[in-house]
From TrEMBL:
This is Adhesion G protein-coupled receptor G3-like. The chain crosses the membrane at residues 398-420, 432-450, 456-482, 503-523, 555-577, 597-618, 624-644. It comes from Oncorhynchus kisutch. Residues 240-387 form the GAIN-B domain. Residues 396-647 form the G-protein coupled receptors family 2 profile domain. GO terms for molecular function: G protein-coupled receptor activity.
Length: 678
């Protein structure tokens, strides 16, 4: 290292002069009488400190200059070609890896004393040096035309005055297999061309026996009739992600560059470094990928994308990966279908597909399956319900957004009145009602924001909003149930005998739904789903795609809530009608409008309107959705009226149990606990 007038020289410094009249290479040599002097372009010796790592090159227009600047530093070899206003500098991989080569471009032409002016001036002539190691590397792209007649260990720097510096690599990222292994398909393929699922499973298990046939080769293409694949040995000293690219003719290659993978291949499999390391720790020696076209269908006759099943084997049991195995299909025509990534463990005569352990990500015309284990994988396609049209989806979405907005307004108003304006101590019934308001408020809010977050394309954000929305919905159902149970206990006058009654209510209302959601998060059940319409478009949201979880957790749970709340609804309505007849016999006025409002309030209070959303079937699906969406728009309004009415009655007439009006009757049946001033 030498320091001259503020300039610090390290490694090999190459000064590239933009002067067509100058040619050749000047470096310290034997022409000067003193070892401390340097020769400029006229042959004059300029006294300078001895610097042995300096090379000065002038590249003429459309000419190539190649010199080895210093014999004692062979890694500083390079080649410079100037084309118009661009420099193309060819470097070896060693020259980049040593991190000793720095390229300087003077700002002035016709430097009369080289290298004296270079040494003695820090700003007038020089720019910031170009350091190839900061530009060239793993992210460099491959260009076959630029790399013609160049070795794979070569980089090409392109430096222009107008744009950023770019670096190309001549190492082709698409690695063809080292050898081919052809095997008979045997009985795996039937006469009609269908591949037996159980024999395909056996073929995957027998891949380890092919390692001996590979000899010193690292990769081998596998062919068994229509089945194509690739086998790659694992190397303990170089664990990394492995990308398998499938060409349209089903040939496979290992691809080391993401851009090349997307450019030349329409399907790919990525085996993560985590899976690589896990396999090595379990004595795995290979990773194999086979593509099975026309595999036998499952019992449901599921439609498989492209009719292809992908089998992945790594010689060890791999599961619970955090860095997933990714199977990607690009340029997919999925118009009119819902798509779901599925896996099969290879057991049984026929595939038993499941979505467990796999996430489905859709982006434009591509589908990516992110799976936490190794087995057989396929993308199943199912047509959307035929009776859902684009106009229905648009109308229902519009009504739902308006309804959620109105409900949120009235629910927020009721909560404001409760926490800010109310001057009385809340009764048990009021506390339960307020918690129902909070659950419904969160449910409406997450529903309104769900589609926007789904459109962001963030998997983590989608999981979070899907889980929060599901938690809010389960909490809402639970508070419907608590409302019904509390109403029943009030009718029987038993709440006063229950120790820590409200504490138990809070645990049931908020903690139990959270436990369900935590379990589903652990099972990775929340993901992006698409609702397809008849015009080929789709509406995306973050929710549960597993139909069995939806039926078991959502519809099953609400069915239990519905039975209990409906029973209590019938009991209370019957009580109201009996009291109305009693009042008529006593010649007391009992307006029918108040009876109607009471029944409507109770209908919304117990969440019975949700039955239209969950229990619709066949031709009544769309009409039921409209009925539910419209009723849901008024839910917040009627609950607000009920809250205002019951709080007013309880506060003014809290000592009565039954009054002459049915509205007051229901209010006092529901809430006869004493109210005290704060």
């Amino acid at each position: 290292m030498y320091a001259l007038t503020g300039i610090v020289f390290l490694g090999c410094n190459v000064l590239i002069v933009n002067d067509d009249t100058y040619s050749g290479v000047i470096r310290n040599g034997n022409d000067c009488p003193s070892p401390n002097n340097f020769s400029d372009w006229k042959g004059n010796c300029t006294p300078q400190q001895e610097i042995q790592r300096l090379c000065i090159i002038s590249a003429g227009e459309n000419t190539t200059t190649s010199e080895k600047c210093h014999p004692e530093f062979p890694n500083c070899t390079f080649e410079v070609r100037k084309d118009n206003n661009s420099y193309f500098i060819t470097l070896s991989k060693d020259a980049v890896n040593t991190q000793e080569l720095h390229l300087w471009f003077p700002l002035r032409k016709n430097m009369t004393c080289i290298p004296s002016q270079f040494y003695q001036n820090t700003t007038d002539y020089l720019t910031t040096p170009v350091k190839p190691e900061t530009i060239c590397g793993m992210k460099s792209t491959y260009d076959a035309a630029a790399c013609r007649n160049k070795t794979p260990d070569t980089f090409i720097l392109e430096i222009t005055a107008e744009g950023p510096i770019s670096c190309l690599t001549c190492n082709n990222p698409v690695k063809k297999p080292d050898m081919n292994i052809s095997l008979p398909s045997g009985q795996m393929e039937s006469s009609n061309g269908v591949i037996s699922a159980d024999l395909a499973s056996e073929a995957m298990k027998n891949l380890s026996s092919l390692i001996e046939l590979m000899g010193n080769a690292s990769t081998a293409a596998i062919s068994m009739g229509k089945v194509k694949g690739l086998l790659s040995k694992l190397h303990k000293d170089d664990p990394k992600d492995i990308n398998f690219g499938f060409s349209p003719n089903k040939d496979m290659s290992i691809v080391e560059d993401k851009n090349a993978l997307n450019k030349y291949f329409n399907r790919s499999v990525r085996v993560s470094k985590e899976a690589y390391d896990m396999a090595l720790n379990k004595s795995g020696t290979f990773v194999g990928v086979l593509v099975f076209p026309s595999m036998s269908q499952d019992e449901k006759k599921s439609i498989v994308l492209n009719g292809e099943v992908v089998g992945i084997e790594i010689g060890a049991h791999i599961a619970n990966l955090t860095d997933t195995i990714d199977i990607e299909y690009r340029n997919v025509d999925k118009v009119g279908f819902n798509v779901f990534c599925n896996s099969w463990n290879g057991k049984g005569k026929l595939p038993n597909w499941t979505t467990d352990g796999c996430q489905t990500l859709e982006s434009n015309n591509s589908i990516t399956c992110q799976c936490t284990h190794l087995s057989f994988f396929a993308i199943l396609m199912s047509p959307p319900p035929k009776n859902i049209s684009a106009s229905d989806v648009a109308s229902l979405t519009y009504i739902s957004y308006i309804g959620c907005g109105l409900s949120m307004f009235f629910l927020g108003t009721a909560l404001f009145m409760q926490f800010v304006i109310s001057k009385t101590k809340s009764s048990q019934a009021t506390k339960i009602l307020v918690n129902l308001f909070l659950a419904m408020l969160f449910l409406n809010l997450t529903f309104l924001t769900n589609e926007t977050i789904a459109a962001m394309g963030s998997y983590v954000a989608c999981v979070i909003i899907g889980a929060v929305m599901h938690y809010s919905m389960l909490s809402t159902f639970t508070w419907f149930l608590i409302e019904a149970v509390h109403l029943f206990l009030q009718l029987k006058k038993r709440t006063a005998n229950i120790k820590h009654y409200m504490l138990k209510v809070y645990v049931v209302g908020w903690v139990l739904p959270a436990l369900v959601v935590i379990v589903l998060l652990g099972l990775q059940k929340y993901t992006l789903m698409s609702i397809q319409t008849d015009d080929g478009k789709s509406v995306k949201m973050c929710w549960i795609t597993d139909i069995y979880i939806h039926y078991g957790v959502n519809i099953g749970y609400y069915a239990l809530v519905f039975v209990w709340t409906l029973t209590n609804f019938i009991i209370v309505v019957r009580q109201i009608l009996i009291l109305r007849k009693t009042n008529v016999g006593k010649c007391k006025n009992d307006p029918a409008s108040k009876n109607t409002l009471t029944i409507l309030g109770l209908l919304f209070l117990l969440g019975l309107t949700w039955g239209f959303a969950f229990f619709s079937y066949g031709p009544m699906v769309i009409p039921s959705y409209y009925i539910f969406s419209i009723l849901n728009s008024f839910q917040g309004f009627f609950l607000f009226l009920y809250y205002y009415n019951t709080n007013k009655i309880v506060g003014d007439d809290r000592n009565s149990v039954f009054t002459n009006q049915s509205t007051s009757t229901f209010s006092n049946i529901y809430d006869d606990s004493p109210v005290h001033k704060k």
